[in-house]
Amino acid sequence: MTPIVKRFAVVVAFLAATDLAVLLDIPVLRQLLGFSFFTFVPGILILYLLRLGRLGLTEKVVLSVGLSVSFLMLYGLFVNSASLLVGYDTPLSTVPVVVSFSLAVLVMGAVACASNRTASFAGLSGLRLSTQEKAYLLLPALFPLLSILGTRLMNVSHNNSVLMVLLFVIPVYVVFVAARHNRITHRVYPLLILFIGVSLMLMFSLRCNHIMGGDTHKEYYLFQTTSANLHWSIVGCGNLDACLSISLLPSIYQSLLKMDPELLFKLLYSLIVSILPLIVYVVSKKHIGVFYAFLASFFFASQVMFLWTPAQARSNIAVLFFSLTIMALLDPKIKESTKIPLFLIFSASTIVSHYSTSYIFLFILLLALVGVWIARKVFVSRSKHILPRPEDHFLPEVRQYGVSRTALPGMKYHISGSLVALFFLMLFLWYSQLTRAPFESGVEFIQHTLVNLRDFFLLEARGGVVQSAIGEGIASRAIPRKVEFVISWVVVFLIAIGVFTLVRRLRDTVSTPNSRSERLDLLPAELDSEFLILSLGCCAVLVSSVALPFVSIGYSLSRTQFQAMVLLSTFLIIGGMTAAKSVRLRQRFATILILAVIVPYFLCTTGAMSQVFAFPSTVTLNSEGPAYDALYVHDQETNAAKWIESNRDRDSTIYTDREGFLVLLSAGGIPFSKTDNRLVPVSERGGIIDGLIYLRYRNVVKGELIGTNRDSIYDISYIATMLDPKDKIYAT
Asked: Domain spans of the chain?
């Protein structure tokens, strides 16, 4: 029996155990086996089908997770659509899900076995760690446990001491690793990155018993609706209907796992998206080496949008697929014939996950396509008299400049007009022909941007994040905010230096290949022009988001920045190296400079810096303050929402403030059409409310009402004339 047949037998046994645990509803075992099998095994089999079994272990893990989640969404959509077509309207119930997905796994396993009779799953040696490597991972392995215990302590007693210890131990350990990186092998970094990422996201996931965030309440409502219907369909939620990542995907997991839906929704995305820093590590290590790639991934994990993944479910899942697409295009270990199917799978998954992320991806691809065309034209024109044949001795010299052979003119670029056209075709079909709302929203977004160009020089035409970024009101802010403002601009400055450095080096390498004056000795690995061109596309999108009016209002700059940082995190490291070299510092001082930026940045984004100055800025570390009041959902609120749903008059409207309708939506399942969050405006007009009034914990305990925007806060007495004639019919 060949190794591949033996492994197929293991897959069959694993599948049988999982199916039995699911169908017999065995507690704990159903959740553990169901999640682990369907999050890893389908992707592993697809890797075999694509003959990618000899990639490195880290690459295989992230690709397996990405392909498995893609498989659940895309194949799940196929099964759902086919079932509805033949008149079967419950394809997402447990038995159909188990049968359909198990059959697909068996078919993929059989085909993989037949086409890879002598293949072995190389790279598993990476799991075997030496005693010294295990010692380096002993403390990081406790990070997720500290996160769970600390969050539990915070929920029960409002004591953040354990979480504060964790948030200071993590950067201290990063500094320790930096000091001893010459003695640490490459096998340590991926696990260290994973432990850090999981521990950081669990802090938000477990902070509350209920759904926290803004749009995440709407996402959870869509998930609950899809799960209750036992099939996916367009249910009138506008743009959200196009996002399978928050409707079909969690519904499939719920059918398999059968766990508390709120806990599933909060943990599912944290566990899946926790591999994002690993993808940044994989993309970066080719260009700057494993140690600096670790620093780049740590910086990426410090992004606020990553920390808030449970509240950014659809966009962060889409960024995950965006990252995997970039990785598949740029990884030299992936064969050319395999890059196209991986591109199609991951880009399709991006499109069905989130519309805005997909539009940004399209713009980046278009800009990169233009960049590739310019690079070929300009570089060929400038170097046609000096570039030798590929077999000449010049190519090793080019590598010394940190520019890979594939970056030179005349060599193959993976970004092509046909790939971009395929991406646009999939985007157009899904958003325009099948779900419609996102395409109409995209057209309206562009129209609003063009109309608002007349306000180009008005700061008010930009979003609040942009206004804060350029220093609006900085003088009146607390010290932690001022520190964060300075550190953020240092980050921007270093990234700009890194991008400029590589643009100049690529130009000089082609123009004057024998010059050594611009060589950066601190860079341990090569860089290619396609990576640089994609990064320039990200820079252009970021600059456009800031410069163009309305763009940052219609779509938060924070989300755009998070997507761009998948590539730009590498340039922070390069910028730090360049800055150190410019003042003639040695390599160890370059590392110190980089740490002096990313460690304070981490402390700022996680809220640890604010806590030191007794400034409550994050809900994860505080039970008071604006963030807590706006985001935290108390048990009393959900109990009241559920009671209202059970006892309300189906024809009446429920009035509440700006935040209350979200709790009614997620906890009570009461649709938008039956709620009105304009309680304050109705009171201002002297209107009479003929229906229920729902008051949140913040309204009753703190006596605060939220008006039409987050910053408009009113005293509860403002609506006294509306409350006086009302009877209190339910209180918790």
From this structure: 3-120+211-240, 633-723
